[in-house]
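Reagents: none. Just compute today. Histidine phosphatase family protein.
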Amino acid sequence: MPSTTIHFIRHGKVENPDHLLYERLPGFHLSDLGRRMAEATADYAAADPQLSDVVAVYSSPLDRTRETAGIILDALNKVRAERGEEPLELQTDSRIIEAGNEFRGKRIGYGEGALWRNGNWHLVCNLWKPSWGESYQHIAARVGDFAQEKVREYAGKQIIAVSHESPIWSYRHLLETGHPEHNMFLRHTALASVTSITYDSETGKMLSISYADPAKDVR
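Predicted 3D structure written out:
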């Protein structure tokens, strides 16, 4: 059975000394630790027979994902050069961008964080259905649309998509349970982790999901 695999990779840690919820705001880049996380995952990808054989690398258009993807691309292109193959170039897709959030630009959990300000309680009344922003259904639907398009486009191949925790987990949860709603505190999508989803190339049906955390020991 021909299959297509999309390796969804979460970005590394972000430089955020003011502890803001950065959401889709520009200007939030990887920290030194975040770059080391991305480098650990890049080394993992370059050494893995499947990941090193990907034919395309996609990223959310945000700074932190493009920087993570760039580090991974550098490692993969070294392997490709050794094999006499042309280098891959980064492609961006807004369907795998971070979830929309009404708390963008606000401090969360430090001092008078946004969660505790008068008038904001209605935004956090239900952890399973994010009343504070974009619904899990919409998040999973747009990621699913991206995935199904790429399964057809790259039938029988493997690609990488560098994204964010909420999009990766919401989509994975939909595939595993039939619904995208979940408790945000129970996600398993570590920074710079790899969630690999394999599909039947003809039907687009999910065949398997695997998970790796190459940066777990990075300090």
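The CA atoms of residues 6 and 206 lie 11 Å apart.
Action item: order primers for follow-up constructs.
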